[in-house]
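Hi C.,

You asked whether I'd gotten around to modeling the 280-residue construct. I have! Everything is below, sequence then structure, no commentary in between.
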Amino acid sequence: MTLSEACLFGEKRLEEAGVPEAGLNAWLLLEYASGCTRSRYYAYPQEQLSEKEEREFRKALEQRASRIPLQYITGTQEFMGHSFLVNDQVLIPRQDTEVLVEEALKYLQPGMCFLDLCTGSGCILLSLLLGCPGAAGTGSDISKGALQTAAKNRERLFPEAVLVESDLFHGIDGVFDMIVSNPPYIRRDEIGNLMEEVRLHEPASALDGHEDGLYFYRRIAKESPSHLRAGGRLYLEIGYDQGITVPELLEERGFCEIEVKKDLAGLNRVVTGVYPGTDG
């Protein structure tokens, strides 16, 4: 099978399976299986795949046809300009979450310390540390599998990052200048409507926000003041329809200067607030 034949074969196979963007997926899987670059493909479209490359490509196609996410097959996902290792123990980093990192970086300064709750792959934690040299960051997660993945990313990108196994704040000591989190926020009755790639393969514990999607926001709003310095800031990723309810939860717990930030699609994506302290 030549490179050209492989690309056409892969696109047809994925189209038959109903995979969106079949052509792009086929190309990315071919790139993964063979190491072929775009320039090499266009210069030598009749180059033959080795037996091993063709075998790996066909295997990857069948995995994708069964709706295993592309990123779980290739094992990586780009986020904030860095490549993160991913697997079925962690959510796949989304471009929408980059808004959370970008907003937090506007506040974060060298010498500050911050906490990333529900760290998953560590993409938020490590991107903040890489974006603000001199800051100190801790990432926590209840999932051992997620923390193992985050540890691999830590070793590749920022070995000084701290990782803690914790159910939100239960294993956390000390106070921070900033707390960030992309917690589970999908309403339980909506999970069955998600894309197969998400519903069947991404970790349910990282999606399920319980009955109304607000369970973790309630806990964070209640518990975070004990772990924020006076004047410290909280940054939360939210669902598009939570731009009123989550700010209300923060206001009830004494936060001020509450703002809602939108993503590139114009949807509510990040809520931020300041905790003034007991004398605020």
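If it helps when you're writing up: The first strand starts at residue 76 and ends at 79.

Thanks,
B.
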